[in-house]
Amino acid sequence: MQTTHALLASLLLSSLALAQTTIGIDDQNPTTGTSNAFPFSITGGQTSLHVYSAQALRARGICGGALLTNLEVAPSTGSSGTYNAPQAKLEIGHLAVSPPVAGNWTGHFSNSVVAHDLTSGPFSFPWTLGTWTPLPGVPTSFFVWNGVDDVGVLYTSSSGVTGGFSARRSATQLRHYVAVFNATTQAPTSNGLFAMKVQMTWILGSACAGRQAYGTGCGGLTLAASADPVLNTTINLVTSGITPTAPFGAMCYGFTQFNPGVPLDNLGMTGCFQYNELLAVNLFLPLGAPSVTNPFVVPNYPGVTVQTQSVVFDPTAALTPLGAVATGGVALTIGN
Prior knowledge:
Elements: H1 2-15, E1 20-25, E2 35-36, E3 46-52, H2 54-59, E4 67-73, E5 80-85, E6 88-95, E7 109-116, E8 123-128, E9 133-134, E10 143-144, E11 151-157, E12 167-168, E13 175-178, E14 190-192, E15 198-203, E16 210-214, E17 222-225, E18 234-240, E19 248-254, E20 262-263, E21 273-274, E22 280-284, E23 291-297, E24 305-313, E25 324-326, E26 329-333
């Protein structure tokens, strides 16, 4: 079975090589960060959970449907060696609750994969100081991120570890630790932003959702999207800076981005710009409110980018000769 898994992984990697990306949390430099004995320099039993937030993954371009093909750590002591734990379990999964419940060692995950189990024999791999060191079993465990939940890496090792090393740790991601092999309900004795610093390699299965503001507004009017346009969700497009006497406004949609924008001075909207072709327009009534929220139901068109812009009309405020002002543009790329 392991041979079959390895063959499938090899075929998948070769066919999707162009979609492969490698990220670092906190960064991709294996020589920086605090040196940490947990978990690979503990000769007695230990259990630790290392959490990598959905926000951290998305900020580095990873999205739902991505396949994890490598997980590497950065040794920070000694020179080189071979780590060996007589018994160990390496499990990767989506956290059922985040931050995770302290001490709930066997119930952290809503679903998970096991890269190395307690019955799989010793967990062993070579390492070298100051270089990224891959953890065995990850490429053939086939963990696919759902794009929403935080990711947890649970590692437990028995006593009798040899060839151990300290490794760099993150300053932004959570870790639970307890000096107990195969822990169940014991409260962690260490709990904070000490997760293993890691380098991850992913294959991106489809387009990632994203949002990008561009251009400039006029008359103090702004537009922002509340979240990335992930498939099967609804996000909010928020127009702010609306004058209290504005009778109406409009959300303008298109597929073509005008950047730089088209000047609207000749229409009497001095200093304002048009940022898309205005294929669809939805009117809204501010009713004196300084901001208006328009829901955007994300359609099932992964990879498509929708251009958005708001316009508000207020002849009383007279911010332009026409009495209308506009926001900058916001591009919404639909995906996972």
